[in-house]
Each structure stands twice: as structure tokens, then as C-alpha cells.
């Protein structure tokens, strides 16, 4: 059966096979960097769920997991200011090494604002891990230690990423046809 997403995408940007190779590399790097450390990985809902579940299985050291859901104020023309926490993590991160897992960094405001808030909770360290990075869209500098892929300024869906809450359940990352959103 043809996947419904295929009707609406221009082309596949990253196949599930390419993604799997890169996710394995990231998992190996994270496993080395955090060996002997108290690691907690926190996934940002909802876009990161597919990446998160694949990545955690490539991390070969003890770890905790948790989740948050956030939204930036002023979506569209995303502005400075705070991020609204819609669902907070359940674990206390004081003294732990926190690794935030995101699907994509675009303007950078979501992660910039989230970092500000989480620093106040006094984790031992905080690092960011994003599957996708759109460097051409950045409005604020954000230190992302682990990046899966730099991608062009195109709207992408699949592997957890959505447009209007659809397309998350597509196994590849595809470029959405402009006719879908213009
Ligand atoms: O760098 P920025 O310009 O701030 O954009 C990146 C954010 O936008 C997306 O979230 P979205 O609000 O679409 O929520 P979702 O994860 O539920 O899809 C994505 O998951 C990041 O959180
Ligand atoms: O290209 C994208 N796709 C899905 N969600 C996003 N949020 C920022 N950029 C994107």
C-alpha cells in the first residue's frame, strides 16, 4: 500500500537507511562522552519521539529518559522571550548530566529559551542533540553539540516531523510540496 505522505512530498531528503547510520554514530559518540556520568536524556515532544526512540537504543551506557512539551511564544515570527512549558519532565535534574533531544533547530528560539530555563534547575551539565539543523534560518546562536544533519531551508516532514499535525508517521524525511502549504 502506498504511504499517504508520498502524494505530498517533493522528494525524500534523508532515507531511513541514511538516518539509521547517522543515529548509530551519534549514539556511539554520546556513549563515549557520557561514560561514567549520570546521564538523563530529555526528549522534546512531539517531534523528537521517533528520533528519540531510535537514538536511545544506540546509547550503550546506563541512562534515564524523560520528556517535555514546550511552545515558543509568538509562533510564526518567533520572538525572544520565554518558552511555555506545556508538560514538564518528572525527574529532578540537579547534579545530573542533561541531554536535550530535539528533532529540528530552525530559528533557534525554542532551544535558546529552553536552555535559559533549564540552567536554573542546576544540572551538572546541559548539551543539545538535534537530528536536523537548518543553519540558514538561525536567528539566535545556540550551542548544539550533537547534530545529525545540516539541511537546506526547505520544509521537511516525516520521522516525527509534522506539518499541521500530519506526516509524522513517515519513515523517511521528505521535503513537503509547496502546494500543500502555500
Ligand atoms: O528553532 P525554532 O524556530 O524554535 O523551531 C524548532 C521547533 O519547532 C518545532 O516544534 P513545533 O512547535 O512544531 O512542535 P512539535 O515538536 O510538536 O511538532 C521543532 O520540534 C522545534 O521544537
Ligand atoms: O522543516 C520543518 N518541518 C517541521 N517542523 C519544523 N519546525 C521548524 N522547521 C520545521
TrEMBL record:
<keyword id="KW-0547">Nucleotide-binding</keyword>
<dbReference type="GO" id="GO:0006166">
    <property type="term" value="P:purine ribonucleoside salvage"/>
</dbReference>
<comment type="function">
    <text>Purine salvage pathway enzyme that catalyzes the transfer of the ribosyl-5-phosphate group from 5-phospho-alpha-D-ribose 1-diphosphate (PRPP) to the N9 position of the 6-oxopurines hypoxanthine and guanine to form the corresponding ribonucleotides IMP (inosine 5'-monophosphate) and GMP (guanosine 5'-monophosphate), with the release of PPi.</text>
</comment>
<dbReference type="GO" id="GO:0000166">
    <property type="term" value="F:nucleotide binding"/>
</dbReference>
<comment type="pathway">
    <text>Purine metabolism; IMP biosynthesis via salvage pathway; IMP from hypoxanthine: step 1/1.</text>
</comment>
<dbReference type="GO" id="GO:0032264">
    <property type="term" value="P:IMP salvage"/>
</dbReference>
<keyword id="KW-0479">Metal-binding</keyword>
<keyword id="KW-0460">Magnesium</keyword>
<keyword id="KW-0963">Cytoplasm</keyword>
<dbReference type="GO" id="GO:0005829">
    <property type="term" value="C:cytosol"/>
</dbReference>
<dbReference type="InterPro" id="IPR000836">
    <property type="entry name" value="PRTase_dom"/>
</dbReference>
<dbReference type="Pfam" id="PF00156">
    <property type="entry name" value="Pribosyltran"/>
</dbReference>
<keyword id="KW-0660">Purine salvage</keyword>
<dbReference type="GO" id="GO:0052657">
    <property type="term" value="F:guanine phosphoribosyltransferase activity"/>
</dbReference>
<keyword id="KW-0328">Glycosyltransferase</keyword>
<dbReference type="GO" id="GO:0046100">
    <property type="term" value="P:hypoxanthine metabolic process"/>
</dbReference>
<keyword id="KW-0808">Transferase</keyword>
<dbReference type="GO" id="GO:0006178">
    <property type="term" value="P:guanine salvage"/>
</dbReference>
<comment type="similarity">
    <text>Belongs to the purine/pyrimidine phosphoribosyltransferase family.</text>
</comment>
<dbReference type="GO" id="GO:0000287">
    <property type="term" value="F:magnesium ion binding"/>
</dbReference>
<dbReference type="GO" id="GO:0004422">
    <property type="term" value="F:hypoxanthine phosphoribosyltransferase activity"/>
</dbReference>
<dbReference type="GO" id="GO:0032263">
    <property type="term" value="P:GMP salvage"/>
</dbReference>
<dbReference type="InterPro" id="IPR029057">
    <property type="entry name" value="PRTase-like"/>
</dbReference>
<protein>
    <recommendedName>
        <fullName>Hypoxanthine phosphoribosyltransferase</fullName>
        <ecNumber>2.4.2.8</ecNumber>
    </recommendedName>
</protein>
<comment type="pathway">
    <text>Purine metabolism; GMP biosynthesis via salvage pathway; GMP from guanine: step 1/1.</text>
</comment>
<dbReference type="InterPro" id="IPR050408">
    <property type="entry name" value="HGPRT"/>
</dbReference>
<dbReference type="InterPro" id="IPR005904">
    <property type="entry name" value="Hxn_phspho_trans"/>
</dbReference>
<feature type="domain" description="Phosphoribosyltransferase">
    <location>
        <begin position="13"/>
        <end position="163"/>
    </location>
</feature>
Amino acid at each position: 500500500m502506498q504511504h499517504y505522505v508520498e502524494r505530498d512530498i517533493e522528494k525524500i531528503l534523508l532515507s531511513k537507511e541514511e538516518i539509521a547510520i547517522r543515529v548509530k554514530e551519534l549514539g556511539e559518540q554520546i556513549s563515549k562522552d557520557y561514560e561514567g556520568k549520570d546521564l538523563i536524556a530529555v526528549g522534546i515532544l512531539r517531534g523528537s519521539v521517533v528520533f528519540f526512540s531510535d537514538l536511545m537504543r544506540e546509547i550503550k551506557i546506563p541512562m534515564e529518559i524523560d520528556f517535555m512539551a514546550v511552545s515558543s511564544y509568538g509562533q510564526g515570527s518567533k520572538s525572544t522571550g520565554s518558552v511555555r512549558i506545556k508538560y514538564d519532565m518528572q525527574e529532578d535534574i540537579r547534579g545530573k548530566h542533561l541531554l536535550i533531544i530535539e528533532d529540528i533547530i530552525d530559528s533557534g528560539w525554542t532551544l535558546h529559551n529552553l536552555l535559559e530555563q533549564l540552567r536554573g534547575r542546576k544540572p551538572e551539565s546541559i548539551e543539545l542533540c538535534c537530528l536536523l539543523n537548518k543553519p540558514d534560518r538561525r536567528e539566535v546562536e545556540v550551542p548544539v553539540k550533537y547534530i545529525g544533519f545540516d539541511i537546506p531551508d526547505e520544509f521537511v516532514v516525516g520521522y516525527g516531523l509534522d506539518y499541521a499535525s500530519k506526516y509524522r508517521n513517515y519513515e523517511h524525511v521528505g521535503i513537503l510540496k509547496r502546494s500543500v502549504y502555500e
